[in-house]
Amino acid sequence: MSLSGGYLILEGLLKSDEILYLEKLIANAHFEDGAATATDAAKAVKKNLQMPKNGSPEKQQIDSVFLHAMVNSPLIQTAIMPLRILPPIISKYQEGMHYGAHVDSPVMGDNQIGVIRTDVAMTLFLSDPETYQGGELYIYTNVGEVKFKLKKGDALIYPTTQVHGVLPVTSGERLAAVSWMQCTVRDSEKRELLFQLKGVHSIMEKNNPNAPENAVLLQVYSNLLRKWAEL
């Protein structure tokens, strides 16, 4: 795990049995043109396939596994503090497919949870990186372009405020699940400060459970969260 500038890399978010289960569901699923769910300028640069968001039994089971992994991830809950999570889009990139540079919509909707403000996005990688060439997720940052190609079952959470895309797949097939979250604390710098405070508190409590400083630090954390939370 790493957290810097609003980025969070989670290794092994999905366990091996969860991955196998999803692979069986995805193998028999129908895919359609991914541009159907793109908005504004993104429609012209999105060249991939995705599972329909039609509430099929397969998609519902995939959504359940995905949400269970996120809700039960201490790192996601502590570092990102998701208030609402959109069901994932399961995307497939075959040879020649890509997603050009774009910015995610600031608000998105779902029939189940309604409209959310998209504070962060998450890409969960569902293909071994050795099985396809190209297909890196790239993000334009203040220090230049950064590329990500993680292991199967790993996930990257990143700010929706930055231009990003997926490079063309030159061989093989790239599968991924993409979702968006509205955070309890909107500002990424404030979330990172809270995450650091929580980490220090956990270390202090482990080393000396009865130290009075533990309660004081937890008080600071709680009061800042109370001040910054948007519910």
Characterise this structure.
With 231 residues, the protein is α+β, with helices and mostly antiparallel strands. The chain has two domains: 2-183, q2cbj1_9rhob like domain (Jelly Rolls); 188-228. The chain is built from six helices and 18 strands. The chain has helices at residues 16-27, 42-45, 57-71, 74-80, 188-207, 212-228; strands at 2-4, 7-10, 32-33, 46-47, 49-50, 82-85, 89-93, 98-102, 107-110, 114-117, 120-125, 132-134, 137-141, 144-148, 155-159, 164-166, 169-172, 174-183. Strand 13 and strand 14 (144-148) form a beta hairpin. Helix 1 (16-27) runs antiparallel to helix 3 (57-71) and helix 5 runs antiparallel to helix 6. The longest helix is centred in the last third of the chain and has 20 residues, at 188-207. The radius of gyration is 19 Å and the shape is globular. The model has no long low-confidence stretch (mean pLDDT 93).
